[in-house]
Amino acid sequence: MTRRGLLIASMISVAGLLAAGTAVGTMLPGDARLPIHWNLRGEPDQYAGKWVALSIPAAMTVLIGLLFHFLPAIEPRKQNLARSQGLYLWAWASLLLTAWSIMLVLASTALAWGLPASRIILGTIGVVLALIGNQLGKSRSMYLVGLRTPWTLDDEEVWIRSNRLAGKLIVAAGLAIAIAVLLPIPPGVLDVVVIGGLAIGAGVPIVHSFIMWRRARRSGQPSE
Looking at residue 166, what DSSP letter applies? Predict the structure, then answer.
C-alpha cells in the first residue's frame, strides 16, 4: 500500500460510489429522503433529498483523497510524517472503507434490504479504530496525524509513549466494538461498550501525556 496506490483507490472509489448512488437513486421516487447523519447509537437523526444523501460518500472520498494526497506538503514535521507512513496510509484507507460503509447503509435503507444500519456503522467504526490504533505506536510527532496534545508535540518521548498507550487502548476499543455489534446484546449495553471504549481510548492517553510531560519537566529533561 502506497500513497500513489491509495490515490488511485480513491479515484476508483469516487467513480464506484457515484455509480452506486446513481443506480440506487434512479430506483427511488423523486421526493425520497434518506438519512445523512446518525447519532451515537447509529440511529438516523437528519435526512436530505435522495441525490444529496447519495452523493455524500463520493464527496467525502474526494475530500479525503485531496487532504491525504497534499498532507505531506502541509505537514511542518515532514521527516516525522515520512517515519509514520503506516499511520498515514492506514488512516487514509480506513476513511475510504468508511465511505463505502455509508453507501451500503444508504442503499440498504433506500431499497429496504433490512441490513442493521446501526451495527454496520458501529462495526465499521470498530474496524477503523483497530486499524488506526495499530499504527499509532509506530508514529512520530506530527501536527496533523496522531495523538496531538500540547505535551506530545512538545516532547518526542512523550509522543512515543503516549501514542503507544493510545494505540493499545484504541485497538482494544475497536475490537470490543466490532465484536459487540456481532453479538445479540441490547442497544443500551452496546452504547456502554462504544462510549466507554472511545472515552478510555481517547481520555486516558491525553491524561497520560500530561503526566509524563510534567514528570519530564520536573526531572529537568530537555524537550525533544
Answer: H
Task: Please check whether residue 224 lies inside any domain of the structure.
Answer: no
Q: Look up the domain containing 32 and give its range.
A: 3-218
Q: Is residue 223 part of a domain?
A: no
pTM to 2 decimals? Answer: 0.86
Q: Assess if residue 132 is contained within a domain.
A: yes
Query: Would you tell me how many other CB atoms lie within 10 Å of the CB of residue 76?
Result: 9
Give the span between the Cα atoms of 125 and 113, in whole angstroms.
21
Alpha-carbon gap, residue 123 to 145, rounded angstroms: 23
- What's the number of CA atoms in the CB half-sphere (13 Å) around residue 61? 27
pLDDT digits (tens, 9 = 90+) for 161-193: 999 999 999 999 999 999 999 998 887 888 889
What is d(CA 146, CA 201) in angstroms, rounded to the nearest whole number? 13
Give the number of domains in the chain.
1
User: 48: part of which helix (H) or strand (E)?
Assistant: strand 44-49
Whole-number Å distance between alpha carbons of 118 and 217: 45
